[in-house]
Amino acid sequence: HLHTLGSTATFVFLSPGPTVSRSIVKGNVGQNITVPCFYQVKGPGDITSMCWGRGSCPTSKCYRTIIWTDGWRVTEQYSSRYTLKGNLLKGDVSLTITNAKEADSGMYCCRVEISGWFNDQTSNHEVVIEKARISTASPHTYTSEQTS
């Protein structure tokens, strides 16, 4: 019966940790940019701590943390330009960047600390802040084309 050992030794459930979702958020300098992040809250027991950090999500916590919450309120805030305006108690932990600067561009990590080993919900968000392009064409050129 030795030949059966090969087939029983295949472990299908060894997936490389939870999947990390990604999103890209684009905006212009001076705007308020909201980076979406949500987790599921069915009841008060699901409310949990979370952090936002710069750079891709590390294996635990956040690098260069900009915001921590204990689930109910923001407990640490690196800058007044970073706020959580959503309803934390409903799992809306989206990050709002006020008066965006080009230096705000880059990767952000949203980590929701869900109890248990390696259960944290992580997502990487690429933020692209561009200088608003000033249009050189005057609006009159369009109206004259339409009326002619």
From TrEMBL:
Annotated membrane topology: Single-pass type I membrane protein
Alphabetized GO MF terms: phosphatidylserine binding
Cellular component, GO, one term: membrane
This protein's record includes keyword Cytoplasm: no
Coiled coil: none
Chief localisation class: membrane
GO biological process, one term: cytoskeletal rearrangement involved in phagocytosis, engulfment
Domain of life: Eukaryota
Keyword Protein transport appears in the UniProt entry: no
Residue ranges occupied by any Ig-like domain in the UniProt entry: 18-130
Compartmental location: Membrane
Keywords, comma-separated and alphabetical: Disulfide bond, Glycoprotein, Immunoglobulin domain, Membrane, Signal, Transmembrane, Transmembrane helix
InterPro entries documented for this protein: Ig-like_dom, Ig-like_dom_sf, Ig-like_fold, Ig_sub, Ig_V-set
Family label: Belongs to the immunoglobulin superfamily. TIM family.
Protein name, per record: HAVR1 protein
